[in-house]
């Protein structure tokens, strides 16, 4: 199964939980720079973007990373773990 095709399940996260998730991602995947949540669609061809939304639709957790051979594996692993509820 191609992990890039996995849909992301909405996660109901408090502010504290979102902060913990963001820090966990950056500590476990140091190759990835901090996500840019301000302009998620900017430079669409150069960055890979995915989001985690809470159930109320009040918050979008955007992560924007350079897409290359070094980051693709980490991005796929993050998506897999979010999809499987491991974070």
Overview in brief:
The chain contains two helices and two strands. The chain is an alpha+beta fold. It has one domain (6-83).
How would you characterize the overall build of this protein?
- With 87 residues, the protein is an alpha+beta fold.
- The protein has one domain.
- The protein is 33% helix and 16% strand.
- The protein has helices spanning 15-28, 69-83, and strands at residues 47-53, 60-66.
- A two-stranded antiparallel ribbon has the order 1-2.
- The longest helix is centred in the C-terminal third of the chain and has 15 residues, at 69-83.
- It starts with 14 loop residues before the first helix and ends with a helix.
Spell out the key features of this protein:
87 residues, alpha+beta, two-stranded antiparallel sheet, 2 helices, globular
Whole-number average pLDDT?
A: 58
Tell me the structural class: alpha+beta
Helix tally equals 2
- How many domain modules? 1
The end-to-end span amounts to: 20 Å
Number of strands: 2
Radius of gyration from CA coordinates = 12 Å
Largest sheet: 2 strands, antiparallel
Strand content: 15-25%
How do the strands and helices of this protein lay out in sequence?
Layout: H1 15-28, E1 47-53, E2 60-66, H2 69-83
Antiparallel strand pairs: 1-2
């Amino acid at each position: 199964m191609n992990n890039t095709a996995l849909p992301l399940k909405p996660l109901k996260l408090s502010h504290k939980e979102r902060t913990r998730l963001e820090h966990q991602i950056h500590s476990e995947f140091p190759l990835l720079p901090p996500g840019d949540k301000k302009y998620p669609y900017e430079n669409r061809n150069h960055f890979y973007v995915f989001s985690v939304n809470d159930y109320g639709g009040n918050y979008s957790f955007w992560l924007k990373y350079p897409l290359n051979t070094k980051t693709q594996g980490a991005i796929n692993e993050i998506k897999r773990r979010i999809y499987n509820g491991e974070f």
